[in-house]
Design a protein that fits this description.
There is one protein chain. The chain contains 13 helices and 31 strands. It has about 575 residues and is of the alpha+beta class. The chain has five domains: about 180 residues, 3-Layer(aba) Sandwich (Rossmann fold), CATH 3.40.50.300; about 80 residues, Beta Barrel (Elongation Factor Tu (Ef-tu), domain 3); about 70 residues, Alpha-Beta Plaits, CATH 3.30.70; about 80 residues, 2-Layer Sandwich (Alpha-Beta Plaits), CATH 3.30.70; about 110 residues, Alpha-Beta Plaits. The strands form six sheets. An eight-stranded antiparallel beta sheet has the order 11-10-16-7-8-15-12-13, with no helix packed on it. Helix 9 packs antiparallel against helix 10 and helix 11 runs antiparallel to helix 13. The longest helix is centred in the last third of the chain and has 21 residues. It starts with 5 loop residues before the first strand and ends with a helix.
Length: about 575
């Protein structure tokens, strides 16, 4: 393949700005997928992704395109837009030379637009700014164009205006991809270096590594080495994505494709690793060879307790999580036990959307109903016993008229204003804020006060000392461990009273009294109770000696005492969910 005729690029944008729709049009125009087989969000093969209308997993595809009698190979990698999956975007950009920066003509620049731009800028990618959805009546094309010029420094003449839905001007965009995006660098004569930018597990083929060949050439039957794990193997199959796996004889410098080596353990094929030729040239002492920089391993920041709704499904849940981690390296889990819910797992996620997606996958793919408990962020305990919590730099993008309400929300979430900038139609606010505010409804609160227009991006910065207290909820002196959590000390009494009252309103009455207590660091700070049902044991008596009545009442009293002593505190799942969702 002629290296000069290869173009590797990604589509980056904020969520719901039309990335997948644009990818569909590109597949159609290049005849990669016939019109009869085309369906919306063609590259999003995950049913959850299709139903939600968002991309949650990067998807590469090779397209063939002819311009001025020259045949070009276009390698597109479609990317997610939500902040929870930013790590997928960073991996994609390291495998490309260019990026289409897509902006919705009705919404303008949003948080992830800027975040992805900065990431691509760090990779020295060539940009093609594109305004999408110009066919809509509410489109503000010129206003958005001015935003792109002001915010990113683009020139007016280099901004494309398209409608991915109708296909307007998408054919012109294709030719601009060839003209503007540079061909890949790298030398075929150098030692083999392949960057693993993703990997998935196939139960029949083993681990399928998604690679970008940076230097050298690779063919079937070649012996290769995974540099970081020092694992040697033989290439049993390789090829490219069209968009399904298409086997070929070799992959050369600049190409994007897949490699199968028969490795069955995906943990041995690390994303960001360098694949090298097993012929001595990979060794460190060889001055010609230098491994590729790779990526930071994504670190889960939000943790939930995950329990099967039926205790008989514990083994199946463990197997399900094990299978999910084969294709989701950001997902982590360890076993834990709850005296109320039984055996379960402590599961780490990148964010709240990531948790929702995993829960849906478990339901759809494994037919398991699971319960997620109170979310917690990752606290750390120093050697001196001080507990620290993660902080983030939060960036909020909002129309100017909502700046005041947004500031009120952020200040109420313990945010410290770092910067405030006004642009043509929107404002950008930066805050230093505890990451725990994400699990306390930060995103939904900002959406609410801005009528849905505010968008956010964040970057973890450091750990700072936190004044925390342990909040515990008890019912009839039985700790409900799944409702326990660490809270800020100055808010602990208020939160305890709120939880006690909410639980009182959620629990059904029983035949015994239910006493609900909220404790902060072991001290009772809130109390309420639910009175029992009263059963009239004398109802059927029409008369008789008083001693008969006293005997029945005494038997009822003893029975209630035994009931309280042996009754198991039962909290309906609806009540528990209302406690979690209201947190």
């Amino acid at each position: 393949m002629n290296q000069a005729h290869i173009r590797n690029f990604a589509i980056i944008a904020h969520v719901d700005h039309g990335k997948s729709t644009l990818a569909d049009r590109l597949l159609e125009l290049t005849n990669t997928v016939s019109r009869e087989k085309m369906e919306e969000q063609f590259l999003d093969r995950n049913p959850i992704s299709r139903r939600r209308g968002i991309t949650i997993k990067l998807a590469p595809v090779r397209m063939n395109y002819t311009l001025d009698a020259n045949n070009y190979t276009l390698n597109l990698i479609d990317t997610p837009g939500h902040v929870d999956f930013s790590y997928e975007v960073s991996r994609t950009l390291a495998a490309c030379e260019g990026a289409i920066l897509l902006v919705d003509a009705t919404q303008g620049i949003q948080a992830q637009t800027v975040a992805h731009f900065r990431e691509a800028k760090r990779e020295n990618l060539t940009f093609i700014p594109v305004i999408n959805k110009i066919d809509l009546p509410s489109a503000q094309t010129e206003l958005v164009a001015n935003e792109l010029i002001e915010t990113f420094g683009f020139r007016k003449e280099e901004i494309f205006r398209i409608s991915a839905k109708t296909g307007k001007n998408v054919d012109l965009l294709l030719s601009e991809i060839v003209k503007r995006i540079p061909s890949p660098l790298g030398q075929k004569e150098k030692p083999l270096r392949c960057l693993i930018f993703d990997a998935v597990y196939d139960e029949f083929k083993g681990v399928v590594a998604y690679v970008r060949v940076v230097d050298g050439e690779l063919g079937k039957g070649d012996r290769v080495r995974f540099y970081q794990n020092n694992l040697e193997s033989e290439v049993t199959d390789l090829g490219y994505f069209s968009p399904h796996l298409v086997s070929s004889n070799n992959l050369s410098t600049g190409e994007i494709g897949y490699i199968i080596t028969g490795v069955k353990d995906i943990r041995k094929v690390r994303v960001g690793d360098t694949i090298t030729a097993e012929d001595g040239r990979w060794k460190v002492e060889n001055s010609e060879f230098e491994p590729l920089p790779g990526y930071e391993i994504p670190k889960p920041m939000v943790f939930f307790g995950m329990y099967p709704k039926s205790t008989n499904d514990y083994i199946y849940l463990r197997e399900s999580l094990g299978k999910l981690t084969l294709n989701d390296t950001a997902l982590t889990y360890t076993e834990e036990y709850s005296s109320y819910l039984g055996s379960g797992f402590r599961v780490g996620f990148l964010g709240l959307l990531h948790a929702e997606i995993v829960k849906e996958r478990i339901k759809q793919e494994f037919n398991l109903d699971v319960l997620l408990t109170m979310p917690q962020v990752l606290y750390e305990k120093r050697d001196d016993g001080v507990v620290t919590e993660p902080y983030m730099k939060l960036t909020v993008y909002t129309p100017k008229e909502y700046v005041g309400p947004v500031m009120n929300i952020c200040q109420g979430k313990l945010g410290i204003l770092l910067d405030l900038n006004y642009h043509e139609s929107f404002a950008v606010l930066s805050y230093d804020m505890p990451f725990s505010m994400f699990v306390r409804g930060l995103s939904s609160d900002l959406k609410s006060v801005s009528n849905g227009f505010a968008s956010i991006d964040y970057m973890l910065t450091s750990y700072k000392e936190a004044d925390l207290a342990k909040l515990e909820i008890r019912v009839n002196d039985v700790p409900i461990d799944v409702l326990s959590e660490l809270v800020y000390r100055d808010e602990s009494i208020h939160i305890a009273r709120e939880k006690v009252e909410r639980l009182k309103n959620s629990l059904p009455r029983q035949q015994f009294r239910q006493i609900i207590q909220g404790l902060v660091n072991g001290d009772i700070v809130a109390r309420s109770e639910i009175p029992p049902f009263r059963k009239d044991v004398l109802q059927k008596m029409s008369g008789g000696d008083r001693r008969r009545k006293d005997k029945l009442l005494e038997a009822q009293k003893k029975g209630k005492s035994r009931m309280i002593a042996h009754a198991k505190i039962s909290i309906p799942q609806e009540a528990l969910l209302s406690m979690i969702e209201g947190n």
